[in-house]
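Section 5.1 Outputs to date
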Amino acid sequence: MLSIVVPTLNEEKYLPLLIASLKKQSFSDYEIIVSDGMSEDDTKEVALAAACIFIQDEKRSPARQRNRGASIAQGDTILFLDADTVVPDNFLPAVYEEFKRRRLSAAGFYLIFNSSRYIYRWFEFFYRSACFTGQFFFPASVGVGIMVDKKIHDSQNGFDEGIFIGEDYDYIKRLSKQGRYRMLNSSYLYFSVRRLEKEGVASVLWKWFKGGLYFLIRGPIRKKIVDYDFGKY
C-alpha cells in the first residue's frame, strides 16, 4: 500500500488540483493524508470533501507536517507531495512499480515546471542534469516529491524539524546512507512556479543559491538566513 502525505498551509486553491490528478490514476491501493498546519482558509473542507485523511498540528513547518502525516501512514511506502503539485496520468502505478522493482529505499523525481516561459525549460535541464549526476555522488531532492520506504523513514526519525529550510536535502542525505537512493525515470512531477512568479525569479534563485551554499559549507540551516515564508502563495 502507498501512503501519500501532503503537508498543507492555506492550500484551498491548489489542493483540489492535486487530489483530482491523484483520483484519475488507475492505481488504487493508496491513501491520501493531508497534514495541515492550522490553515485559515478552507483547506480542511477541501480535504474532507475528497475523503482524505485529515490531521492538524499547531506547529507550522513542512518537516513537521510531513512527519505527522507519516506517523499515521498505513502503507509500506510513503510518497511525500507538495500541495501545489500535479501528477501526470499513470504516475502512481509507474513510479510505485519502478520503486519496488529497483528495490530502492528512497527516490526523487525529475520536474516539469508548469509555465510556458522559456526560462523554465533551462531550469528543467539544469535540475535534471544536477539530479542525474548527484544521485550517484551527492544525493539530493526537493520536497515537492519524495518516495521512501516507511521503515527507512522511521529508522531516521523522519525529517529534522529543527531545520528552517533545506530539510528535504538533509533528509535525503541521511536516507541515502541507509539504503539505495535514485531518481525515478518512469514519470515526472509538475512543479509549481507560483513562488518564482510572485517573488521574482532572481530573488528566489538567490535564496536557493545562498541556502545551498550554506548547506554545503556549514550543514543544515537552523536559523533564518533568508526570508522564506510558508502558506502565503
